Amino acid sequence: MIRLEHVTKRYAAGGSAALDDVSCEIDRGEFVFVVGSSGSGKSTMMRLVTREITPTAGSILVAGRDLVPMTERKVPLLRREIGVVFQDFRLLEGKTVYQNVAFVLRVLGEKRHRIKQLVPETLELVGLDGMAGRLPHELSGGEQQRVAIARAVVKKPPILLADEPTGNLDPETSAEIVTVLDRIHKTGTTVVMATHDQGIVDVFKKRVLELRSGELVRDEAEGTYAADETRERERAAQRAAEALLRDED
Amino acid sequence: MRLTFLLGEVGNGIRRNASMIISVVLVSMVSLFFLGAGLLAQREVSTAKGFWYDKVQVSIFFCTSQSTDVQSCADGAATQAQQDQVKSQLDSMKPLVEHVYYETSQQAYDRFKSQFRGSPYLSDVSPAAMPSSYRVKLSDPSKYNEVVASFEGQQGVEAVSDQSNVLSTFFKLLHVISVGAVALAVVMVICAILLITTTIRQVAYTRRRQVSIMRLVGASATVIYLPFVIEILLATVVGAALAVGLLWALVHYGVEGLFHSSGSSTGDLVSMIGTADVWDFAPWLFAGAVVIALATAWITLRRYLRV
Ligand SMILES: Nc1ncnc2c1ncn2[C@@H]1O[C@H](COP(=O)(O)OP(=O)(O)OP(=O)(O)O)[C@@H](O)[C@H]1O
Ligand SMILES: [Mg+2]
What residue stretches are annotated with the ABC transporter domain (chain A) (predicted)? Predict the structure, then answer.
């Protein structure tokens, strides 16, 4: 579904690589966490897949399309295959929940009766039934993110990208949101979620891709946030620090 | 994208940027008004010239009983013999003299009356005070001097006037108005283009989230551009309509009102443009508005709105 081959991205010519020779493949129907510290290149990877940016080197295939030679005119067709969710929700403030979700379908020229059918269906899927008439500022963060997810999936894209969707939410709400993503995954959608939420990654036990300063350092099925050896090292560091503190006393 | 949805988006954009949209309306109105005024002034020149060249270039006015202060009129009103003398002289000047016609003092009075209707001085003027005249049409209007020279000072002739002299001031004035109006129009069109550019950028700013979501979900460039283009198009077309309305009012109440020439005969000094000329230019003004709006909007969107 998504294939990166030796992808390198430099934002400035000759500058440091935001992504450095990354190769990976995500199959149809997978749920993948992309983890890594701030600045490791997670968002860069997402933006490459939606072709907001183009790679400096390497090739990218998404939903059977080769993104490198793709002309600008074809980009909208690619994006219709991908739903995107962000950390900051990005809802249209003046529009109700229903209108926010319906906006996508209207922009894409969907028939009125299809809209009437798809929007309530999707709101129910993300657990927002009964809130269709609310405005974004009348919703909690978690509810707003559900609206954003509904908006991303209402056109039934085969791929859903979520860039730190729980970054602004408390742990409990975060878990709810990922449960919603998991529900969407179960309908057959390929889900890729960038995150640094360790708890979430450890609980949901999905495939984990780890980036470290632009390099893909780990690709683990049913992985945890930190690699085993990393956790070993962290524990060792903690023990050392504790020993130091004891010595100081 | 459905029409109702599109119109809703357009309405939203106009509401949220009302002041900018209104300024686009006004600037296009002013620029197209000046453009139209320049064109009308040009047309007036050609209308008046055509009329003039079609009719008379030289008028030979005969003495009236009141024109005794002129030397050649010392004997009072021109006699029939003096008038016949002028006529036969004119006839002998063919082919330079192409056509001659005679205007009686009554005709002159009627024309005067219709031209200066409502003027308070009208009651002071009697038909007898209006000179009868020969109106002479020349085959070569530029040779009016030959004719003027041969009748000047002749007994019974009060004055020979080359009316193109009178008109040339009028033409010069019109020409200045026309050039000035077109120059102003050019400046205003530049203003309009810059303002449209700024307006689109502002509308794009207030609609940036909408646009980013449209891009994200895979809307085509056309769909993203359409609301902007329609907003600007509406504003300039409304501006053009207002400009045409203003020009119509100018011609109807100004030109037609002041120089009312309906019902008067061929003897009129000048012929004035009418509201029909405004309608002639109206489609061009609208076309100009549409072209400016589309071209500017398209270029601005291509430059500033990444899709
Ligand atoms: N538009 C840009 N122009 C230049 N450099 C950029 C741009 N976007 C990102 N970078 C750089 O690329 C690197 C990777 O950034 P990226 O946003 O992909 O990281 P991230 O993993 O998403 O981080 P975070 O967890 O903070 O969102 C960083 O060093 C960043 O400074
Ligand atoms: Mg990021």
Answer: 2-238
Cβ neighbors of A163 (< 8 A, separation 6 or more) are A42, A43, A46, A84, A85, A86, A87, A194
Residues in chain B: 307
**Hey, are the CB atoms on A77 and B209 less than 8 Å from each other?**
no
Among candidate residues B234, B239, B220, B230, the one with its CA nearest the CA of residue B3? B230
Instruction: Work out the pLDDT band at B263, boundaries 50, 70, 90.
Output: very low
Helix, strand, or coil (residue B298): helix
Q: Is residue A142 within 8 Å of residue A177, measured between CB atoms?
A: yes
The environment of the single-atom ion ligand 2, i.e. residues with CB closer than 5 A, is: A 43
Q: What is residue A31's DSSP assignment? A: E
ipTM of the complex: 0.84
CA dist., res. A68 & res. A61, Å (int): 8
CA A52 to chain centre: 15
Q: Which CATH architecture has domain B56-162?
A: 2-Layer Sandwich (3.30)
Q: What share of chain A in percent tops pLDDT 70?
A: 99
Q: Which helix (H) or strand (E) holds A98?
A: helix A97-107
Residue B265 predicted with pLDDT over 70: no
Domain residue extents for chain A: 89-156
Residue with the smallest CA separation from ligand 1 atom 16 is A41
CB A36 near ligand 1, within 6 Å:
yes
Residues of chain B within CATH 3.30.70.3040 domain(s) are: 56-162
- pTM of this structure: 0.73
> Which atom of ligand 1 is nearest the CA belonging to A196?
25
